[in-house]
Specification:
With 119 residues, this protein is mainly α. It has two domains: 1-55; 73-119. The chain contains four helices and no strands. The chain has helices at 7-28, 36-54, 57-65, 72-118. α1 packs antiparallel against α2 (36-54).
């Protein structure tokens, strides 16, 4: 079993563990910007990478059970679609933040202008 593990699997597993531990410690220390959502996303993503790196046949099994056939590329494509959905969701949130910041700046500028007129 040990001889079947490649250097690629060891490197990928090590990187996965590093990110899992790093994000968990940040969450435990309650560092700024850390949330339960980020922790869960990290556990799901890097945990999956860790599992798939040491047990690559699981990806084929999942692909077959989802009706995607034997082709692993379909599962990878589905992963890319999911990632793009997340990117678009993040972009939407960024746009909302920009609108909110613009609105706050406008209101503050109008308030300062009114204070200058009244002085």
């Amino acid at each position: 079993m040990i001889s079947d593990i490649s250097i690629y699997q060891i490197i990928l597993g090590t990187i996965s563990i590093f990110f899992l531990v790093q994000r968990s410690l940040r969450f435990i220390r309650k560092e700024r910007g850390q949330s339960l959502f980020k922790l869960l996303a990290t556990i799901i993503i890097w945990g999956s990478i860790f599992i798939f790196s040491f047990f690559p046949n699981i990806a084929h099994t999942i692909s077959r059970n989802l009706g995607l056939g034997e082709n692993l590329n379909t599962l990878i494509f589905s992963g890319f679609v999911f990632v793009f959905l997340l990117i678009f969701k993040l972009l939407d949130q960024i746009e909302k933040l920009e609108r909110n910041i613009s609105e706050i700046v406008r209101k503050e500028a109008l308030r300062e202008l009114n204070n200058l007129k009244n002085s």
